[in-house]
Amino acid sequence: FILARASDDTGATAAFEKSIAAGADDPMVFVSYAQALQRSGAPPARAIGVAKDLVARLPDDPDAWTHAGFLATAAGDKVLAEDNFRKAIDIVEDPQGWLALAGLLQSQPKRVTEAEAALRRAVALAQESRFCSPVRLLAEFLVHRGDEAAAHEAIATWFKDEEPCYCCAVLEGDMAARGGNAEAARNAYRNALQLRSEGIHALTGLSRFVDRAEGEKLIAQAMAADPTDHRCLLARARLREDDPASQIADAGEAVRRFPSYAEARLFLARVLLEQGEPNRALEHLKLSLAELPNQRELTPMFVDAAMAIATTGLGEDVSAILGNDEYGSTMEPL
């Protein structure tokens, strides 16, 4: 482990091989061995072999099967990964096993119904322990599938008369924000901050629903907590409506740091359009489209931006972007 932390993957690999040969029965030895092999450029088959060795060594350990599933996933063998996750569930059915399986299923577009079922099973199993990660992940999944009503219901059912956890509170805030309910959004974000005063998601979310002075303070607090977080830049861009150059600079830096940040690209597209740069706006619209199948809650924002760009004389270009994309082609004609 020390050699791995020191980035000596060659030495670490040799040390892990000796440990396994000597009878190591800690799954993390196998996991770390596979990771060292991957970093050193070994073919995926080597990691698959380590995963198989792990479960052969510990056939009755659900954690071993789960780790083997993650190793198979990283190596690109989804069939083996699913077999491993299901074996872990067969040994001990718990929320973690179903969450691992759900994560794998979510990566396969044609299996989203199965993924939802796996998440709901994890939620059911977590009732007694009140482990709230499953309901958060289910709600996030539903939001990204475009079903915010079901996400709200899942959170409300889980917490009933309790205050939601931090993550669910900010999720409620985000849903209220997209729905135009400023008061509900503000309350949800403030509730989240009662639980985690330095929560960047809550700080940046709340900044949209307070006055300019308080918004600047909230964003400064978020940036102090993590200066590299791209969400801080988009929040500041949204706040500074009187300074388009600053908005473009901040949103542009946000997508440079996090290229798949579709929300920032759509915001940037609108600002660029207002500044008379429709072609640059069109490029960000196109790049954001690739993320929409997994963030369908942003579809209304995308449609608004697309329609605005189309009115500048780029209607054919917008139609071409939509027509050449599997998800885009399902949208109503603009």
Query: What is the C-alpha radius of gyration, as a whole number of Å?
Result: 23 Å
Structural class based on helices, strands and sheet pairing: mainly alpha
Estimate the mean pLDDT confidence. 93
Largest sheet: none
Strand composition percent: under 5%
Q: Give the oligomeric state of the chains in this entry, treating copies of one chain as homo and distinct chains as hetero.
A: single chain
Query: How much helicity do the residues have?
Result: over 70%
Distance between the termini: 56 Å
Q: In DSSP terms, counting alpha (H) and pi (I) runs of 4 or more, how many helices?
A: 19
Q: Spans with pLDDT under 50 lasting ≥5 residues?
A: none
What does this structure look like?
With 334 residues, this protein is mainly α. The chain is 73% helix and 0% strand. The protein contains 19 helices and no strands. The radius of gyration is 23 Å and the shape is globular.
Features:
mainly alpha, single chain, 73% helix, 19 helices, 334 residues, globular
Short summary:
With 334 residues, the protein is an all-alpha fold. 73% of the residues lie in helices and 0% in strands. α3 runs antiparallel to α4, α9 packs antiparallel against α10 (148-159) and α13 runs antiparallel to α14 (212-225).
What order do the helices and strands come in, and which of them pair?
Elements: H1 2-5, H2 9-21, H3 27-39, H4 44-57, H5 62-74, H6 78-91, H7 95-106, H8 112-125, H9 133-144, H10 148-159, H11 166-178, H12 182-195, H13 200-206, H14 212-225, H15 230-239, H16 244-257, H17 262-274, H18 278-289, H19 299-323
Helix pairs in contact: 2-3, 3-4, 3-5, 4-5, 5-6, 6-7, 7-8, 8-9, 9-10, 9-11, 11-12, 11-13, 12-13, 13-14, 13-15, 14-15, 15-16, 16-17, 17-18, 17-19, 18-19
